[in-house]
Amino acid sequence: MAQIRLTKEFSFESAHALDGYDGLCREIHGHSYRLFVTIKGEPSQCEDNPKRGMVMDFGDLKRIVNSEIIERLDHSFVLRNSEQNAELQRAFSAKFEKIVLVDYQPTCENMLADFAERLRRRLPEGVELHSLRLHETATSYAEWFASDND
After folding, report:
1. What residue ranges of the chain have pLDDT lower than 50?
2. What is the pTM of this model?
3. What is the DSSP string of 50-64?
């Protein structure tokens, strides 16, 4: 059977600051992110499977991405969990609920690596994560490919 790739697009709004960065992105700023998730696999040929002919139901993929990424990050402030950010974290947490602490610099590149790990763990048997594309702005994006990371 043929290998087929499926792609679903997601969007979320999020702010971050790059700890120790030597440019404008060290300041708190936000993005309207666009995330493209591409999976691959063989469409089911099982006669009694209601998903016959599908690699994966787009609704199932949406539920996984929403629970692992979108619900967690949409309208959040993402901050590196570091000693330098401890005071900022305390101040923001006193006023805002969606402070997401990560163990990495929250760049587009590092976020993609995190997303890949999260999604790979949740995909059903026979379905592989092929690639991710994360647009930080209308003209700037980063990409992750499984073939580069296996």
Report:
1. none
2. 0.94
3. TTTT-SS-HHHHHHH
